[in-house]
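Exam review. A common question shows you a sequence with its structure tokens and asks you to describe the fold in words. Practice with the pair below. Do the first one on your own.
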Amino acid sequence: MTGWEYYAVVLLVDFGTFLIAAWGLNLEFGVAGVPNLAYIFLVAAGAYTYAITTLGPSSGNGGFQHYVIGAHLPYPVAILCAAAVSAVLGALVGITGLKRLRPDYQAMALLVVSITATTLVSAKTSLVNGSAGLALIPNPLHSIEPSKRGWAYVGMVFLICLLVFAVLRRFTDGPFGRLLRAMRDDEEAALAIGKNVVALRIAVQAVGGAMAGVSGALLAGFLGGWSPGAWLFIETMALLTAIIVGGIGNNWGVVLGTAIVPTLIVQGVQFLPDISSNPELIPQLGWIILGCLTIGFLFFRPAGVIPETGVRRRHRVIAEPAELAEQPADGAKNGASMSNWLIAPRGDADRRLADEREDILVVDDIHRDFGGVRAVDGATFSVQRGSITGLIGPNGAGKSTALGIVSGFVRAGRGTVRFDGADVTRAPNYRRARRGLVRTFQLSREFATLSTLENLVVAAPRARSESALGVLRGRRYWGAEEREITQRARRLLALFQMEDKAAERAGNLSGGQKRMLEVMRGVMTQPSLLLLDEPTAGLSPRLTQRLGDACLALREEGLSILLVEHELETVDRLCDTVIVMVQGKVFARGSMADLRTRKEVQEAYLVG
């Protein structure tokens, strides 16, 4: 093999192995929003696993290196073991470093994990031979003639790249990818529609970790050695820069970014001739260029060379507007006859009549303090099934905090919350949403990078496409259901007169449109009780009227609503019962007409 051939083989193998790792990190960071600065640790785990499962006992080769296990597994099995070990470690990192941490804290926690792992491996000689690392790692193609082995290795790496890409698309290009992007855009909004964010993050860490393990195994098999110096945390920055340059969240952009950053720049400069006056410059030149690229792209083109949006249609099974012809012509005008496509089945009519006087929500003696300030002080109230109940009071009365306690986004100091006959006081927020207790927020929260239609479709409960089986089996398994969900979402857009915004990115909507979108997204979950936190704030009179009409129609179909609202005209029009809160306590309860006549209520809130 000539020098140029060797040069080409090294760059191509580097490109293929780095690409697998970059795809895995893009799944975690670019698609799911997990800032995993410990990613190179998972690559190293794969490399070490491949080494110790193929080298044989450490007593071999003169016993000059010491390591655990020491097996002689077939090479394909060793690569699979590397993937499995890195997947498990990725999931463990997800549990310890990601649960309920802010993104910047997540990044710091995972950076510490990476540095700690490097220090531990370097100091523990008997684990994987300490700082000296492992040598004589077998090449899986060692039986091939040396002159042809390099190109054969290139072919093997690129074949594995194709297999990894086929698996990756199942996670990023379909409805599951839509769910991950929703989680990335707004974690709390995802929790509010019943998505288990922690489980999703751990699953993504495991899948991304498996890709890291495969990358590390292929690198170790090609290089024949591996040491702590090969996986310093700065290597993760090279992969991150490749993602930023190519296009965050875009698998094809990552291909371009990997070719430019870790392959041509970081590795390519190593083949440049040394500068006699400064021999240390060339080895560090790649990192200097990498730093400048990162800063430049973050400032001037944060979406990368190939932005995530506009390069593919993520949802080819989306129903076409023509399918709305099945809806009655007046359905979008008066909100009638929605039960067969908006509201979840609630049993037969006799059961509904029997339950209509029952309380779907009972809140008993809830308290919540913030830094010594008592926001909620023993509030007790209930919501009747099939009613619209208003929750009003002056600013600072504790209304939104009470709503947060009911929905599980604020932990109660004491007291109980019972929903639909079950005690949900300690239930996580996403589990309450899955049971049918769904909320909106005081400040609208949309999944900004998804379209308006995708914001609604992602809220559908128990979607087959979001299950493990759905990811494995693909469109044939979930395609029909996806079309039905999308059709329902389009009809909902028609009801709220926003069908012309279906393809618009949610982040580009006006404030009032975002507010309407959040209410629609709540309805898409098919809730039993919908908690609306000041839904008319920022809405025009026309949109306020449209929202009110929809709420009344939904109530007629059996939906219960708890409405926090400052606009008393809206409360008067919509609410069957109104609860007044003052200084964290329930002060009065009754119809709006009755409350207006009560002097103590006027003095506390209504006067002026």
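Now try the second one, then compare your answer with the model answer below.
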Amino acid sequence: MTENTGNSDDIEADGGSVSREEASFVEYGIEDKPPLGESVLLGLQHYLTMIGATVAIPLILAGAMGMPDGETARLVGTFFVVSGIATLLQTTFGNRYPIVQGGTFALLAPALAIIGALGAQGVGWEVTILELQGAIIASAVVQVGLGYIGVLGKLKYYLSPVVIAPVIVLIGLSLFDVADVTTVDQNWWLLGLTLFLIVLFSQYLDQYSRYAKLFPVLLGIAVAWIVAAVLSFTGVYGSETTGYVDTGAVAEASLIQPIVPLQWGIPEFTFAFAIGIFAGILASMVESLGDYYAVARIAGVGAPSEKRINHGIGMEGIGNIIAGIMGTGNGSTSYGENIGAIGITGVASRYVVQIGAVVMLVVGFIGYFGAFITTIPAPIVGALYIAMFGQIAAVGLSNLKYVDLDSSRNVFIIGIALFMGLAIPVYMGNIEAAAGAADMGATDYFREEITSNAAVIGPILGQQVISDTIFVIGSTTMAVGGIIAVLLDNTIRGTREERGLTQWDQLAEGEDEFVTYFEQMRSGDEQKPVDQAD
């Protein structure tokens, strides 16, 4: 592991001065560059943790739009390509954290609302995807402005560990859909085998084998998939079971699939649709703030500086513009999944994530790859989610070590934020279910509900822009919990030491020395660590 001797990097631990990366027991720090072959496998492992979402989002969108199978495969490949491009830009020119960029569920709700509205008008998928592209591009331009002007970075001064802890916990809890595990026909044997293998490699065999420590996810998934494939081939698993591996789709896939900018046509711009998408982007930005703190904490570095936050959010906006131009019908945001992978493997190298991004960028054009990924059975993906998302939730809880938990103020804020962050999105989900039963759009049904139940402010809340924004943000767990925690933590009286800010300021000391890629190039000193405070 690369030695870091900067004074700002030293903290007190166990009575001695150690670097932050050493204190977090990372195998590879942010600046470290493992051998190329090893980096390819490590990078692939990072991306395997987000495969479920990367494949699920385009499949959901394609199904809702009625997109043909051939075009659906190209849409999945487009997600991989955009993810690779956005990750390279973020890790090189953005916040430079080792964090993967990819499609976001925060934009799924408004996108489905747009699809439903256009579908009611008899519009086909060819026009619908162009409307989605236009709405995403228009909203992303605003996000770029908010990022680089510095609006989001100012939030740093209102965020204490009392706020960040529940937000990160909610990121982990919200990423894991319980239905993926608790379905009646779940193959518990295969899920349990996969989870056992990941735990075995990462926690028990890591001290005996370096490969077990570095590749626990990759090894666990590979072994479990081989077992499932053998059982499927021998007929033990039938096509109707959840553990069945169907390799037929791979044989039918094309070797190369063309993915180019504006591949579906010229985007269409509708103001109302852009407002709905922007509500999702707001929720995505709040989530990303939590992700930045999570990846900094788990990689053993100081809290993100205002400058780093601004560069990260601004670059996510650029990633959204690219997603709109390429035609994903979705956006791009920081992924919490690979943060969990860092926690399990100890690999926090930016170089590794960049290598993984290049691999994804290339394989996005290969039809066989996307088809092969879809053969991973749901139980294996479910086990992966348990390990990854549980790790993220635990990282959130670890921030509480800076907070005075004997303070009833802090316990109250954390409890309310967690409970409301889980409860309100469930309510919004019930609204969506009721809207489906009434054959209405979710946002339209929600607008009618708040208009009829709020006599005084109902007409105000009933405005489409306001109601759509409330619905999308209210459907996003970490956004709800974060907003509630910020409001309470900054209005209820409490000392800086009580809130954990005193210790956090010590950890973040010197973090403002964050140097961008262009600043490094202008300095002409390639040997200077880019993240001096890291």
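Model answer, second protein: The radius of gyration is 23 Å. Confidence is low (pLDDT under 50) at residues 1-23, 526-534. Full marks require stating both points clearly.
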